[in-house]
Amino acid sequence: MEHKFESTYFKSDKKKQTQGPQARSYEWGDKNSHLFFVAIDTGPTYYQYSNYKDPARFLEAYASVPDADRCFFEQIHEGHACNEYYDIDLTLGQVADKSDILRLEQQMFIAFLNARNQYAPDYPLDTTHCRVLSASKNKKISLHIVIPTYVFENNNRHMKAFVLAFKDAWSSASDEDSALLKRIDTKVYTRNRVMRILGSCKFKDRNRPLQRAQWHEPSMNAEDQEFLITNIAAPHTRVRPIAKGSEEGKPVITNRERAHSLMIRSATGTGKTEFVKALVKANKGFNFVAVACRRTLANALGPRLGFTNYQDIKESRIACDRLVIQAESLHRINTRYYGENVILILDEFSSLCEQMTSTSTMGHNHDYNNQILCEFIKGVSRVICLDADLTNRDVQLVKSLRNDVHVIHNTFKPQEGDRVVIKS
């Protein structure tokens, strides 16, 4: 075990440990509710393993690592969600110059894009959806494609099944494109797979770092975290798993393997805020964003839940682990900071919905505020809506954006039956 790069790294020590370094890293990460797992290629035959609270924390540490020491791999923890991703490798018969390499990279990418859209038209792609990395050099074309738009619940089950079914579509491509598509590596979806990170090399091949594809403008302009496979950020679409027994290549709907989102109708004084406090306490590994319809409500919720009030944050863009914010200021949120591990709390939801339709209160941020709220509702881990007067229209709105919604109607009214005696 060694502390470096702002984390604890586990390495092989057969004399002292009954568990391998990967298992010890997982155990330590789960204990600390960490979400981002990495490995370092230390050569010649083994990795060192570690983890960070989230991708942002890793990238902060990674920025200070000298280029010569960058042999980092992202580890896709078994059973965890991942962005759609592909590895494409082609060995050439002879050394190619730079212009030929760039031409072949683009040809491979276009062939991939066409075949992928033909196979899964329900999840369309264009070049702006993709983040493309290259490690091509001399006799080898090597592309790494990450698609943050589409997310799979489980890498080695759902993503793997999707790709194996996609493989059958390659035969319908032209002979030239089909030959290129066959270079898509279908073996990179194994359990706990490690994939190289932007800017890193393999230990035995220090002259071939993984870099942004020069010919792909969206990748040249993207932020570093957009190239991470397990950085699940809003907005995104969940790809429905391919089920056994279904028509091959035909996605079918399955339930989310997680706690449900809740819409709770319950009268004032029935403990809704106490429920939220218990929820926060029980989910220490999650970030929380609470959206209030009124500034006074935000001021009241912050101290009760232990959240940071948006009015106390001086930066123009907000990024903190536990935030309470008034709806009119949603445009200040840095959506890149908040990945999938967010629980969204919408208090006084009926009033909040009415406010979101008001251009007079939202001003020129009306459309952007609504877009952010919708993206959060669709993309976060859970949504909790609370209101004493929750309507069916409110419920249908959230159900149109998510498929995991349960409704709770608490009919108890704490003051019902009480008698008030007025004496003159």
TrEMBL record:
<dbReference type="GO" id="GO:0042276">
    <property type="term" value="P:error-prone translesion synthesis"/>
</dbReference>
<feature type="domain" description="Replication origin-binding protein">
    <location>
        <begin position="260"/>
        <end position="412"/>
    </location>
</feature>
<protein>
    <recommendedName>
        <fullName>DNA-directed primase/polymerase protein</fullName>
        <ecNumber>2.7.7.102</ecNumber>
    </recommendedName>
</protein>
<dbReference type="GO" id="GO:0009411">
    <property type="term" value="P:response to UV"/>
</dbReference>
<dbReference type="InterPro" id="IPR003450">
    <property type="entry name" value="Replication_origin-bd"/>
</dbReference>
<feature type="compositionally biased region" description="Basic and acidic residues">
    <location>
        <begin position="1"/>
        <end position="16"/>
    </location>
</feature>
<dbReference type="GO" id="GO:0003682">
    <property type="term" value="F:chromatin binding"/>
</dbReference>
<dbReference type="InterPro" id="IPR044917">
    <property type="entry name" value="PRIMPOL"/>
</dbReference>
<dbReference type="GO" id="GO:0031297">
    <property type="term" value="P:replication fork processing"/>
</dbReference>
<dbReference type="Pfam" id="PF02399">
    <property type="entry name" value="Herpes_ori_bp"/>
</dbReference>
<dbReference type="GO" id="GO:0005524">
    <property type="term" value="F:ATP binding"/>
</dbReference>
<dbReference type="GO" id="GO:0003688">
    <property type="term" value="F:DNA replication origin binding"/>
</dbReference>
<dbReference type="GO" id="GO:0006264">
    <property type="term" value="P:mitochondrial DNA replication"/>
</dbReference>
<feature type="region of interest" description="Disordered">
    <location>
        <begin position="1"/>
        <end position="26"/>
    </location>
</feature>
<dbReference type="GO" id="GO:0005759">
    <property type="term" value="C:mitochondrial matrix"/>
</dbReference>
<dbReference type="GO" id="GO:0005634">
    <property type="term" value="C:nucleus"/>
</dbReference>
<dbReference type="InterPro" id="IPR027417">
    <property type="entry name" value="P-loop_NTPase"/>
</dbReference>
<dbReference type="GO" id="GO:0003887">
    <property type="term" value="F:DNA-directed DNA polymerase activity"/>
</dbReference>
